[in-house]
Structures are given as C-alpha cells and as structure tokens.
Amino acid sequence: MNRMNKGKVAIVTASTEGIGYAIAKRLGNEGAFVVICSRKDTNVRRAVKELRREGITVEGVACHVADAEQRKTLFDTANAKFGGLDILVSNAGVNPGASPVLEAEDATWNKIFEVNVKSSWLLAKEAYPYLVRRGGGSIVFISSIVGYKPVWPIGLYSVSKTTLIGLTKAIANEVARDNIRVNCVAPGVIDTKFASIVRKFMKLTDGSEDLWKEILPQIPMRRLGQPSEIAGVVAFLASNDASFITGETVVAAGGTHAHL
Ligand code: NAP
Description:
Layout: E1 9-12, H1 18-29, E2 33-38, H2 41-53, E3 58-62, H3 68-82, E4 87-90, H4 106-133, E5 137-142, H5 155-175, E6 180-187, H6 193-204, H7 227-238, E7 249-252
Parallel strand pairs: 1-2, 1-4, 2-3, 4-5, 5-6, 6-7
Helix pairs in contact: 1-7, 3-4, 4-5
C-alpha cells in the first residue's frame, strides 16, 4: 500500500459499510487518521473495532449527516483527537423511494435532497474553516453515474447526484485560492447493500419487467464494481498526486458512458 495520505486527518461520512467503509479503510491503510460515522451507534462501534484490528488509527461518531448537532460532534472529534482536518469525504446518499419523477411525493424529494445534497453542502461549509486553518485540503463528494444519465425509476435520486457534480464545480471555483481542492467521484453500479435495494425497486415498481437485467450488458466490463475500486479513486483525488485537479468528477463505472 502506498502512503499518499500519510499523516492527514480525514472525515468520511456514511462509512460503517459499503463504499464509505472501503474509503475509510483505504485512507487509514495509507496512514491517514480517520473519523468514521453512520447513524447507528452499534454499526459505528463494529466498524471502528474492525478497522483498528487492521492497525488503522480511527475514531467513530454516531452521526446522521442531516443532524447539525451530530455533524458538529464529527468535526469536534477530528479536532480533539487528531488536531484538525485535511480531508472531507461526503459519501452519504439515500434513495427512499422509486417512482416516475412527476409522481414522487414531496417527502421523497425532501429526504433525497436533504441527505444527498444539502448535507454535503453543509459538511463542506463546516469543514471549510478547518481546512483553511491547515493552509489547504481536499473535499470529495460521492455522486453517481446516474447523475449524468437519469435512470428510471430513481429519477429524483439521479437529479440529486447531478446536483453534486455542479456543487463540486461551484465550491471548487470559490476555494481554489485557499489551496482547497474539491472533486467528486461518480461510481457505476457497486456491489453494496444500496445497490441491492435499487435492484429491488427496479423489479417491483413496474411489475412486468426486471430492468436490472438490462444493466449488466450496458457495462463494458460486464461486472459490478467493488467498493475498494471507488476508494482508490477517492484516495488519489484527496492526495497530493491530484494537486492540479479541482472541480472534476471522475467516473468509475467499468466503462459505462457518462453523458451530460
Ligand atoms: P451502503 O452500502 O448502503 O452503505 C450505507 C452506509 O451509509 C452505512 O454505513 C450506513 O450506516 C450509512 N448511512 C446511511 N444513511 C446515512 C446518513 N443519513 N448519515 C450517515 N450515515 C448514513 O451504500 P453505498 O452503496 O456504499 O453508497 C455510498 C454512496 O455511494 C452513496 O452516496 C450512494 O448514493 C453512492 N453510490 C452508490 C452506488 C452503488 O451502486 N452502490 C453507485 C453510485 C453511487 P447506518 O445504517 O448505520 O447509518
């Protein structure tokens, strides 16, 4: 394992399993000090234990990313335990429903945009003073391939992920002068619990067809991605090897085409 992020302090949200966990593990194995979080305390304790068993220096906080108090605890923990912050990875994303966009409930829109977009914006806003204090740093958002090409029946989720691509560019322009880089990763279909929930939506909402079956043939590599394959991209973007890259979204989707 290379040590690109050695000695840096990183917060990774939604990181007790799936892509977030793989990112925390990757950064930790590179020698970063990591703060992980998710909503359920039992998940946080389990993940911290597993990562420490690997020799990673990690702290964990129960934090729903939409909860201001809990986000404050996240930053306080990074500051108190590790002395500041260099890297923020905003990874939390939800998809509470599936329907045509024009039939979606207000509550579904609100939940999707609160967690996927507003919380990412607030986390970046709250991380900013810490990164400035360090003389620079890196923010990475996790979007999705569907941010480039909305997929039925998860159109609202897709649009929230498009918004993150714009948010990346807008913030990157503003904070470049502070030596802060802001980038984004757009994963294709990754083998996690989240993907299996989306798979269920694709079967149940229409009833007549299994849209999931159409997905694999659209991936030139003919396989799902693994969380570790997203973690490697995030680690690169967070590191000094990406020192001239900001405002970008890297698609990691097995060759699936990404068109705006
Ligand atoms: P996952 O395997 O379902 O993992 C979800 C993680 O997030 C868990 O640790 C969960 O723990 C935590 N979490 C959920 N809601 C949270 C919240 N509001 N605040 C804090 N933590 C929360 O999901 P994933 O597939 O790794 O997805 C991670 C990100 O990648 C998401 O933004 C997703 O949209 C994006 N993405 C995924 C795929 C894919 O195919 N998997 C593709 C493109 C993009 P608790 O239950 O304890 O909260």
